[in-house]
Design a protein that fits this description.
Elements (H helix, E strand, L loop, with lengths): L7 H6 L2 H13 L14 H8 L3 E6 L2 E8 L4 E5 L5 E9 L2 E6 L2 E12 L2 E6 L7 E7 L14
Antiparallel strand pairs: 1-2, 1-8, 2-3, 3-4, 4-5, 5-6, 6-7, 7-8
């Protein structure tokens, strides 16, 4: 089954080189890996892998979002719409939970290292949102701010 096309709005805010890489990554990973399930990443493994990186994620063959991981477990998230949310992450059991400035309700994910990147399951469930790392950004995130313009 061919991957779903990327939304044009998401492509508009992606650097061109990344958009091309995302299309290629989605085409090769449209289906979940057939390998046996691995153990979830520990908080220490997740922190070592992500700190200092800005990672793009996709879901079901479509661009999903980008997150910048900084020291002290601080993050900035965007759904690729130019609006960014500041937050933090912390471990909770086998999950990595995120809270953001506009939403104190934890968003918990189970992360796995697979192939050349990360796979994340929302709340650790096999059914529901599943994200795949599409690559690392080579330029800063585009954060326009809320309600820019007239």
């Amino acid at each position: 089954m061919p991957p779903l096309p990327l939304r044009s709005a998401a492509l508009a805010v992606l650097p061109r080189a990344f958009a091309v890489a995302l299309v290629a990554a989605a085409a090769t990973a449209a289906a979940p890996p057939a390998t046996a399930a691995q153990s979830p990443m520990t908080a220490e493994e997740f922190e070592a892998y992500t700190t200092g990186k800005t990672l793009y994620f996709y879901s079901q063959g479509q661009a999903y979002g980008v997150e910048e991981y900084r020291e002290n477990r601080e993050v900035t998230w965007s759904f690729l719409d130019g609006e960014c949310k500041e937050g933090v992450w912390y471990p909770q059991g086998d999950q990595i939970c995120f809270t953001y400035e506009d939403n104190p309700v934890p968003q918990c994910w189970t992360f796995y290292r697979e192939g050349g990147g990360l796979r994340a399951l929302f709340e650790g469930r096999e059914t529901g949102t599943e994200l795949y790392e599409a690559g690392e950004a080579d330029e800063p995130m585009m954060c326009l701010g809320p309600d820019v313009g007239v």
